[in-house]
UniProtKB/TrEMBL annotation:
GO terms for molecular function: oxygen-dependent protoporphyrinogen oxidase activity. Pathway: Porphyrin-containing compound metabolism; protoheme biosynthesis. GO terms for biological process: heme biosynthetic process. This is Coproporphyrinogen III oxidase. It holds the Pfam family Amino_oxidase. The gene is hemY. PANTHER family: PROTOPORPHYRINOGEN OXIDASE (PTHR42923:SF3). It comes from Mangrovibacillus cuniculi. Its cofactor is FAD.
Amino acid sequence: MEEKKRIVIIGGGLTGLTAAYYAQQEASANTEVLLVEASHRLGGKIETVNQNGFLIERGPDSYIARKESMTVLAKELGMEDQLVRNSATKSYVLVNKQLHPIPEGAVMGVPTEWRPFITSGLFSLPGKMRAAYDLFLPKTATGADISIGQFFRRRLGDEVVENLIEPLLSGIYAGKIDDISLQATFPQFMKMEERERSLIKGLNKTRANVPKNAPKKGQFLTFKNGLESFIDELSSRLKEESVYRRTKVVDLERMGQRYKLKLSNDETMEADAVISTLPQQALHTLFPTVTSLKEWKETPSGSVATVAMGFKAENVQVPFDGTGFVVSRKSDYSIKACTWTDKKWPHSTPEGHVMLRCFVGKPGHEAIVDLSDDQIQQAVLEDLKDILGIEAKPLFTNVTRWKKAMPQYQVGHKQKVQRLEAELKAKWPGVWITGSSFGGVGLPDCIDQGKKAALEAVNMVEE
Ligand code: FAD
């Protein structure tokens, strides 16, 4: 009888669970798929808690609907009817102690409609004129990767970058805008410039197909019982005996065509294929001889804390309609973004209440994440008083620290990933290193990566 093959997936966050799900679906009865997770729970950064009737997301709260793989998987899991789209669509930027609506038609900060841009209080007249210069500027000469900051500063000027693009992006990508890779995060803008020269013209063209009076839809989706309900459903599809919780992979050794994994419970596990979905900083001890991982050692990861607060509605008036605001980096507030959760996701908050979820840990000011819960709460409340005039004490505060949890995609990121993949292919056949440190941080990106690695691994072991 043919010997059974085995695929081991390390890490039970979204990438690992997706890999395990698709590998179990694709593999024949002759291939066993196992998942090893260090923690007692699955989901990694996805964690939903229900506190006093409030549905609190401690990590991500939703995913961008345009990237379809998460919706596809939700349908496959029978969860389509549980998807919810964000209801309020307007959001704000805090500049000079004032909340300014993000101008209508701005795509990642690039203006596509003149009227809202010209009338916006976000930019000075010279700042607006500088942005319009994009219409005449030649293409950026180099085809090489550059930072988001460098690219947009050249096309639209410093003011649009600092008052709009930087605050919008710093919520998604940790790190400074002048360090983040354009190629790894928004390659479409690079391509657009290549094709159309002007970003404003290029975006106008792509938006020409959108009917002028089309109703505005929220761009994000989540699940009415929280993102963790998706994790629960996904993990329930895995064979129970295939999931090892509270078990850390501590060492990995190559043995000819196979691999031996040493586990924290002193047991070992052999595998024909290994898919690591760990954050990059956890890999150096696991793969000390993968030389291209050395250049990742210096790659920093950002730390943030999420601070969810519930209030009685009668005590808190948020006189703005929208999903929340992001804060310009020049301001001296501790919070870098705030979601008006009850407005963005009405299902999350009991009637007669308000929920705000703030992020602290601006690049360069991450020490706040190490303060006590009380100190963080205090700093957030001081900011909220100043910005929104909120003086009420919250009914509860839920602080979650995410230390070194936001991968920084620095200039040259894609090339580093390619070098790593090339080395794995040449010297470590049957090992995949994937997940949010590498091929995209968004939840649908994690699904894409987990699925791709799973299908390749099944193909390899069964060929
Ligand atoms: P992780 O979730 O980090 O999973 C890795 C797993 O590996 C963990 O469970 C860990 O315990 C386990 N592990 C570690 N070491 C070992 C070991 N040696 N052996 C075994 N297991 C191990 N994305 C969005 O699309 N929308 C959002 O709104 C959004 N908001 C975010 C807000 C915050 C505060 C953060 C931190 C991230 C946010 N993201 C968001 C990004 C997104 O949440 C992550 O990119 C994604 O969840 C990462 O999934 P992953 O499986 O790759 O990694």
